Amino acid sequence: MKINNLKGTVELSNGVQMPYLGLGVFQTPNDQIEEAVHAALDYGYRHIDTAAFYRNEDGLGKAIHSHSLPRKKIFITTKVWNSDQGYDSTIDAFNASLEKLRTDYLDLYLVHWPVKGKYQETWKALEDLYEEGRIRAIGVSNFMQHHLEDLMESAKVPPMINQVEFHPHLRQQDLVDFCKKNKIQYEAWSPLMQGKVFEIDLFRELSEKYKKSIAQIVIRWDLQKGVVTIPKSVHKERIEANANIFDFEISDEDMARIDQLDCDGRIGPHPNDF
User: What GO molecular function annotation could you give as one example from this UniProt entry (predicted)?
Assistant: First the structure.
């Protein structure tokens, strides 16, 4: 992944260009999402990530519809929630998401969690929607290697994305390597560990060294690891600051030091238990 600027992309296995830095809107209420999304789009973001479970697809749809940027310039991701998994219910959930988002297609649709006994049927629905041209790319979220192997045994179309918890305390290098081997792009949620990165001494040191904020150091580390990243904020200043990471590079030595912080520490639930 060549890191150039905020509009830079990574090529997925099917040739779709996905912006490698985006705005996450988890826990962003509908009455704040329009201002946040407009701030992001005005600054140069072209990738917004939501989910049915976030209950703000309608707010995002309004925000995108009211912005001057053409729909085709914005990469929109949403996800099918656990209670909607299964073939027919996934189709219904997809159509409901499209209506809320005020669009007739998605750039990326993900299976939010690997619901045992259901994610295979859910994936078949995504494959059909993809083959119909209603989704540009399809993928999964929170899938461990054994989930991916199970899914890929029967899949006609392999997943193009695996969006998982990824941050300095949780790298899951074996999963990263498996995804890379199978041309599944890795994507991070909770890259800033819900604020816990600001408590780590190493990042205070690196912030001084590179004259960048701790958030900027972590997001830059993600991208240099080849991981698509979607930090969340509702504040214009932070949204802009999170993207101000293209004028420096973390050294190999410091990248390795950050890697060594890995302690298999999760912020969210384990996919095997959720």
Answer: oxidoreductase activity, acting on the CH-OH group of donors, NAD or NADP as acceptor
